Amino acid sequence: MASKKERLDVLLVQKGFFSSREKAKASIMAGEVYVDGKRIEKAGEFVNIESSIEVKTNSLPYVSRGGLKLQKAIETFNINVTGKIALDIGASTGGFTDCLLKHGALKVYAVDVGYGQLDWSLRNDPRVINMEKTNIRFLETLPEIVDMITIDVSFISLELVIPSADKFLKPEGDLIALIKPQFEAGREKVGKKGVVRDPAVHREVIEKIVTLFQKFNYGIIGITYSPIKGAEGNIEYLIYGKKGIEKQHNFDITKIVKEAFKNL
């Protein structure tokens, strides 16, 4: 009789390695989980429940799990961060900021409407300009134009953020945004606990943001799904564009959404 199999993230929780699937997924994406001596990097991979599982470290590589999301975009789209000056909008604890620095960013302007959230290690890093209690929609100037912008915001649509952020990015600069369906879809399309479960709504949301990028003259280089879900369990997406370059959009959004629902 064939041995029973289970999703790796579920199995890690069942065996007591982690208290939640989200924590298990973060560890898997960080490359910390080995099954029968082989590193597994997909949370949705099915493994034999009798397999030998080892978690080689229990710590995230960044100050928050958000860093893993940006890491996927950087690695998937081969984005060069070295020596770049970045604007991180919605910095919060600093997962994106930390990821940028660990990939070689020269300086990061960490903008967030909140206060006291940025991790202490980043507050004390001379490469980080802490701009807490700052709403990007009302920010008029920065000391310099930046090479790249990253966005991870909640309770607001990217349609209200990108128009305000665009002026701070140099020509041919990089824009990487996290698409959160629950804050982009109409209220009637958001389910219980703020989770959007309909793949069709996910497609609509991504198409809306693609149109937004094109409106502001961004050539879209890539679209992928986030390696881990948001705090409430929403599947999220990453979109990467370059300012002022011409690139025909030919991404199969239906396929991207289908893969996200299959793997997360």
Automatic annotation (TrEMBL):
CDD domains registered for this protein in UniProt: S4 (cd00165)
Any Pfam family: FtsJ
**Domain RNA-binding S4: start-end pairs:** 6-71
Any one GO MF term held by the record is: RNA binding
Protein origin, superkingdom: Bacteria
GO process annotations (BP): methylation
- Keyword entries, A-Z: RNA-binding
Name the PANTHER family for this protein. BACTERIAL HEMOLYSIN-LIKE PROTEIN
Q: Which NCBIfam families match?
A: tly (TIGR00478)
Concerning its family, UniProt says: Belongs to the TlyA family.
The protein, known as: Hemolysin A
